[in-house]
Amino acid sequence: MRAIAHKMDIMTNATSEAMPSSKSARKSVHAFPRLPGGHLLFGHLPDLKRDRAGLQFRVGREFPDAVSLRFGVVRALMIGAPALANEVLSTKNASFIKAPGLTVFLRPVLGNGLLTSDRSFHARQRKLIAPAFAHKRVASYADTMAERARSFASGVRSDEVLDVSDAMMRLTLEIVGKTLFDAEVGSDADEIGEAVTTAMECAIGQLESFLPLPPIVPSPSNVRIRKAVARLDAIIYRLIRARRDQGGDRGDLLSMLLAAQDEDGTAMNDRQVRDEAMTLFLAGHETTANALAWTLYLLAKNPEARAKVEAEVDTLGRAPSYEDLVRLPYTLAVLKEAMRLYPPAYILARRAVEDVSLGGHLVRRNTIVLVNVLGLHRRPDLFPEPERFVPERFLGDEEKKLPRCAYMPFGAGPRVCIGNHFALMEGHVLLATMLGRLRFELAGGADVELEPLVTLRPRGLRMRVHVREAQN
Ligand code: HEM
């Protein structure tokens, strides 16, 4: 395995030049192995529909570097070699845009925000929004995060059984509501959460459908999306209007979005602010909630690691603040290792806008390239005994020793997650605060299932929560 990865690295590093157009280079398209099986008409779409995560695990095991597949008439390539991922996301990023599935079906919900836009518009927006995620600004949100986590932890009764995915979703939704809009979304939280879930389920349903209907067609699913979006818009435009009327910097992300101007002094209009706010709102809570839910699940399965986290947070003797985080490296390592095994953004999709060479092989224009993050994070050549939960992999300098793009829960290149520091800090603060007071055990016999929607959720994760003796 190591040899294959090494060979792939050499091939990839040797081919950063423009696409060769000779006959021999064109022939090399066949060098990527093809995934066996597949329906005569639909290709591998039924496999994807039946068990998306299963397909990714299988490909990761059997074709760890790259494999070509077909979705109907659409050619696709699933890659799991770090060097290839680096080419797609970083060095040859200009040859790719976001895959149409995502943009077409998420656009009714997210509009033309950072996640769904491309090229010069995306570059401009990214530049405008970046200051909102500067280190100092992000650090200023730590108190809100800690305060919400404390209030959650103290509100739980001993022996209470929780749907942990829902609980984490609610907690991170409150936090993003406060840090994004300086608003108590408590009253709106249920409605927002429900509308977002409806819209996302419909969008993913369309994406996986044999006959996806564009958003413009008034199918039952598209009508449900439209209604959910109308409910979300009503809330978000209300918050934007109120803020424009009040003016001033409230220290939240919305203030930054409204104040942001590019070089010629142009600011965003209400629609753009709505799209970016909606994008941050969605991207900023569901992913983190899932990362936390998986972390709690893995700690319940690995009592030794749990004992280490508890010992670490207990040394503080109080609920952690931002300054305390440096003293909690194991807690952070636990979060990172959980995102290795269960990366919330488990697949990244792009479409080639021109013929491009990857690892020395021709990839044709319009090919969908899928970065199999789930498979890549379980490569035994990069992570020995990959199925084991070993937080020590992320202690000290260990992470720095990994090749580029070997660990990429936040993606890579110019489109790397803009909220990665925000998310890591939030996860760190929330875990440390919760685990100082609470211990989560699995409730019920059945193991959880992976539910790969837009992000990777644990389905039916019910946990019994005990209030610990040694408390903050
Ligand atoms: C554990 C939590 C998170 C994970 C695992 C995660 C993961 C990712 C990944 C993998 C991407 C790149 C997608 C691609 O290349 O196709 C991304 C993009 C993005 N994320 Fe996150 N994210 C998290 C938290 C957040 C938070 C807290 C925010 C904002 C508050 C956020 C906002 C965004 C935005 C706006 C983008 C699009 C960036 C662009 O294309 O320029 N994310 N995220």
TrEMBL record:
SUPFAM superfamilies: Cytochrome P450. Keywords: Heme, Iron, Metal-binding, Monooxygenase, Oxidoreductase. One of its GO terms (molecular function) is monooxygenase activity. Its cofactor is heme. Heme binds at C417. The keyword Iron applies. Belongs to the cytochrome P450 family. This is Cytochrome P450.
